[in-house]
Amino acid sequence: MKIAVLSDIHGNLAALDAVLKHIEEAGADVIVNLGDIVSGALEASETADRLMALNLPTIKGNHERQVLMLAPARMGPSDKRAHDTLRADQRAWLAALPATLRLHDDVLLVHGTPDSDLHYFLETVTESGCRAATRAQVTERASNAAAALILCGHTHPRMMKLDDGRLIVNPGSVGLQAYEDAHSFAHRMETGSPHARYAIVECVNGAWNAQFDAVNYDWNAAARRAERNGRADWVVPLLTGYVTCAQQNA
């Protein structure tokens, strides 16, 4: 079985279309979507329409939950844009998505961890910033997940095979390659390039293996659109995969 794994599209329709074309050329038995679908600076409604038509196995991310449940006054600008531009049928589609999903007995889809859409699975955040999680930390977070393959999103490309053979894969973000967050401490997530990210995961002779892909798309046009939409804070992340130019050149 060959699975194409998408996550964290964040309303970046151009990046999504480039990834879908890449998947069509590479081939896959199924495409799955791990959430954080529409919130961002770009094209929330258009992205929802594209994905609704495809009817992929899809779960909610924390941003879907926030758009549906938070009062607009409490939303950040990315969620507020989605809230203000989505139609009623698109909101209903998001509301019907599950928080987790079993593709079949051996494959589990989650956004963050099996227990939380906000916690990181393969990274750990401390007062000093963000770093790769230890095998012991990841094993503890996966303790309630009885699946040979666990697909997660929320952060950036990484995978880990546990001692019991379970493989955990984060495909990275289709639509936004760098961001700042304050949960649980202030930190940055930076992929370091502007390419749209996804993964192909395949079971061969009973063993799961993952391949990460970085796809070209017109990130210059995406950055210009973000700026026109009043989100200058997205320009450098879209163009570089870093939060700031200073970080890129450090």
Entry keywords:
four-stranded mixed sheet; 250 residues; 31% helix
Detailed description of the structure:
- The protein contains nine helices and 13 strands.
- With 250 residues, the chain is of the alpha/beta class.
- Helix content is 31%, strand content 24%.
- The chain starts with a strand and ends with a helix.
- A hairpin with a 5-residue loop joins strand 8 (158-161) and strand 9 (167-170).
- It has a single domain (2-248), classed as Purple Acid Phosphatase, chain A, domain 2 (4-Layer Sandwich).
Summarize the SSE layout with pairings.
Elements: E1 2-6, H1 13-26, E2 30-33, H2 44-54, H3 62-69, H4 77-85, H5 88-96, E3 101-104, E4 107-109, E5 123-126, E6 129-132, H6 135-141, E7 149-151, E8 158-161, E9 167-170, E10 178-181, E11 187-190, E12 196-204, E13 207-215, H7 219-228, H8 235-240, H9 245-248
Parallel strand pairs: 1-2, 4-7, 7-9
Antiparallel strand pairs: 1-12, 3-4, 5-6, 8-9, 10-11, 12-13
Helix pairs in contact: 3-4
